[in-house]
Design goal:
The protein has four helices and ten strands, in the order βββαββαββαββαβ. With 199 residues, it is mainly beta. Strands 1, 2, 3, 4 and 5 form a five-stranded antiparallel sheet that branches. Strands 7-6-10-8-9 form a five-stranded mixed sheet, with helices on one face. It is elongated, with a radius of gyration of 23 Å.
Length: 199
């Protein structure tokens, strides 16, 4: 199994004339992990099970052959454990959003080839309330409530789309500047999801 990388330019997206085209990238990086041997039977058809080292190359390899991996003969290796090839997947929008999926926490995957650099001066907003904002297509923002205390501060998050106008809806009803204090009050009590469109 080898790493895979695909990249596409987002087409048909409304954006300012002066802005560069946005890209979406997909990266798959395999890694080795020592796991208990398990069969593929009983799994959903949509699942993506890990394969052993030999199964990655030869699909019909039996358990007896996999249990002859060199690692199986080392001391302190739990019974019926062998090397598997797991994968970490990354979906990357431009250079600003990364969505990852892996069996292990990212800290376990970091090393010589994968590193995560903290963004300087950015506080974690997971503990504070957020306003979720999405487009009808595929964009999603999670805006910290403290950065949206006024209508102007909220719409300023979409300045990259200028000169297009931002149309905001909540429960399919338009939201205007005079209604923002009500949306803000509701956001402090419960999760609020807004939909934006650029015209």
């Amino acid at each position: 199994m080898v790493p895979s990388f695909l990249q596409e330019t987002l087409a048909g997206e409304k954006r300012p004339k002066n802005s560069k085209a946005r890209t979406i990238s997909w990266l798959c990086a395999p890694y080795f992990c020592l796991e208990k041997y398990s069969t593929l039977s009983g799994l959903k058809g949509s699942s993506h099970p890990m394969r052993t080292l030999l199964q990655a190359r030869f699909a019909l390899v039996q358990k007896e052959r996999d249990m002859k991996q060199a690692v199986c003969y080392l001391q302190n290796i739990p019974p019926e454990h062998c090397f598997h090839i797991a994968q970490v997947w990354f979906l990357i929008l431009d250079d600003s959003l990364v969505v990852s999926c892996a069996r292990l926490p990212m800290t376990s995957l970091q090393g010589e080839f994968i590193s995560v650099l903290p963004k300087v001066g950015v506080k974690s907003s997971l503990s504070s309330p957020n306003i979720l904002v999405s487009t009808k297509s595929s964009l999603l923002w999670s805006l910290p409530l403290e950065e949206c205390q006024s209508w102007f501060a909220f719409v300023a998050h979409f300045r990259d789309y200028w000169p297009l106008q931002v149309e905001v809806k909540y429960n399919e009803k338009p939201v205007i500047a005079s209604q923002w204090p009500k949306v803000l009050a509701l956001s402090k009590k419960t999760a609020v999801r807004l939909v934006v469109d650029f015209r």
